[in-house]
Amino acid sequence: MGKMDSSRTQNWKNSLIYLTFLLTIIHLIIETHFSHNLLFWNKESVRVKKISDLPLRFRYDGTFKILQVADMHYGSGSITRCRDVLASQFEFCSDHNTTRFLKRVIHDENPDFIAFTGDNIFGSSSPDAAESLFKAFGPAMESGLPWAAVLGNHDQESSMNREELMSFISLMDYSVSQIYPSTNGSMMTKIDGFGNYNLQVYGAPGSMLANSSVLNLFFLDSGDRVVYQGIRTYNWIKDSQLRWLRQVSQEFQGQKQDPLYLTDATPLNKPPALAFFHIPIPEIPQLFYKEIVGQFQEGVACSRVNSGVLKTLVSIGDVKAVFMGHDHTNDFCGNLDGIWFCYGGGFGYHAYGKAGWPRRARIIQAELQKGKNSWIGVERIKTWKRLDDEKMSKIDEQMLWMSNLSR
Ligand SMILES: *[C@@H]1O[C@H](CO)[C@@H](O)[C@H](O)[C@H]1NC(C)=O
Ligand SMILES: *[C@@H]1O[C@H](CO)[C@@H](O)[C@H](O)[C@H]1NC(C)=O
Ligand SMILES: *[C@@H]1O[C@H](CO)[C@@H](O)[C@H](O)[C@H]1NC(C)=O
């Protein structure tokens, strides 16, 4: 008996030592992690997210300008080499050139808002997703401009899954990205994907529509890869997402107005909307045979499944243009059933591209109509691109939409 007692005591002692050891380790992990965070957060002891003024709104001059950044494919910074640049450019080219381009285009275009349309970071080249996200979105955070992102098919290939990525992105400085849509003040979590949300852009300050949304922005998660009926393909925008889109769109619809009785305080019927997502829809290949503005240089890497995105957009009617990424050397806008579909064109230097064909960004500008006494709803929406060449060339400017009331 005595022998057993002493071995029990021994076990007890061992367990105690073991427990102490464990607690010490946990303590150390928390300590180092915490101080690492403190350093990470710019040496300030308490950091909260810097918040953009919401709602987004038009400027006093009646314009609202969006910078679309498609496919940064950010890796780890200076050690991540450029792809598809001229042999002469290769040596001094890294992710830093993507950062440089982003700063440059923000400086030159002075946008009101930045929309990142996915493949913001590139899995295998970014072992630490958080670090890559900070670097990739760094210029946007420093600019203090409100910005939003959706995910592509590569973002989740490193240390965070899609839900973690969207939560992280939603917590970054000046980000107005959301993980889930919020309808009537509550988060709607029963929807496919992460990063489905809408943002409203209010009328010009001091105008009669200063407190109303005159332009709506929809962000949708087009997913990543999937095996469908035994075949590897891309994912697609699901029914739940289309139902949400339809519902929000219906809530935005104003009543039909007779232009004769229109006052500056009546929103134009059905404010226009724009949509942003990563993977092109299966109808985009049809544009190869149609008139387009820009270049169609590679096959469209879309899903084999057609979930009826185009049909939904046509029936809701307010989305006038869609902005996508994914196929880096396609940078065109083409029209399908009255809706424009525009590629951003590849932005990032670690993303595949075409040597000698400069990396590029898309600009979208909405302009308000002058009412009797003040700015009213959106009159027209234009787009153009900026190249990361010596002069930051502006190319392919085109009109995407004009209000019936101004025609
Ligand atoms: C990348 O940036 C470096 C300087 O930071 C510059 O010298 C080089 O020309 C850039 N490369 C490209 C392809 O823009
Ligand atoms: C939000 O509220 C409005 C008015 O009460 C209602 O018609 C609409 O269906 C609600 N939307 C959702 C998503 O619950
Ligand atoms: C918009 O809201 C602000 C603040 O509540 C108010 O002062 C202003 O008069 C409103 N403008 C219009 C056109 O309703």
Describe the structure.
The chain is an alpha/beta fold and about 400 residues long. Helix content is about 25%, strand content about 25%. The chain has helices at about 1-40, 85-90, 95-110, 130-135, 140-145, 160-170, 240-250, 310-315, and strands spanning about 55, 65-70, 115, 145-150, 180-185, 185, 195-200, 215-220, 225-230, 230-235, 275, 290-295, 320-325, 335, 340-345, 360-370, 375-385, 395-400. An eight-stranded mixed beta sheet has the order 1-7-8-11-13-15-14-12. The protein has a six-stranded mixed beta sheet with strand order 4-3-2-16-17-18. Helix 7 (about 240-250) runs parallel beside helix 8. The longest helix has about 40 residues, at about 1-40. The protein is globular. The structure holds 2-acetamido-2-deoxy-beta-D-glucopyranose (3 copies). One 2-acetamido-2-deoxy-beta-D-glucopyranose binds near residues 208 and 211.
Number of discrete domains: 2
User: Tally of extended strands?
Assistant: 18
Provide the spatial order of strands within the biggest beta sheet.
1-7-8-11-13-15-14-12
Instruction: List the secondary-structure elements in sequence, H or E.
Output: HEEHHEHHEHEEEEEEHEEHEEEEEE
The low-pLDDT segments are 35-39, 255-261
Distance between the termini: 100 Å
Structural class: alpha/beta
Determine Rg (CA atoms, Å): 25 Å
Query: What's the CATH C level of the largest domain?
Result: Alpha Beta
Helical fraction: 25-40%
**Beta-strand content bin:** 15-25%
Which SSEs are present, and which pair or pack?
Blueprint: H1 2-40, E1 56-57, E2 63-69, H2 87-90, H3 95-109, E3 113-117, H4 129-136, H5 138-143, E4 147-150, H6 162-170, E5 182-183, E6 186-187, E7 197-202, E8 213-219, E9 225-228, E10 231-234, H7 239-252, E11 273-276, E12 292-293, H8 309-316, E13 319-324, E14 333-336, E15 339-343, E16 360-370, E17 375-387, E18 394-402
Parallel strand pairs: 1-7, 2-3, 3-4, 8-11, 11-13, 13-15
Antiparallel strand pairs: 2-16, 5-6, 7-8, 9-10, 12-14, 14-15, 16-17, 17-18
Helix pairs in contact: 7-8
Bound molecules: 2-acetamido-2-deoxy-beta-D-glucopyranose (3 copies).
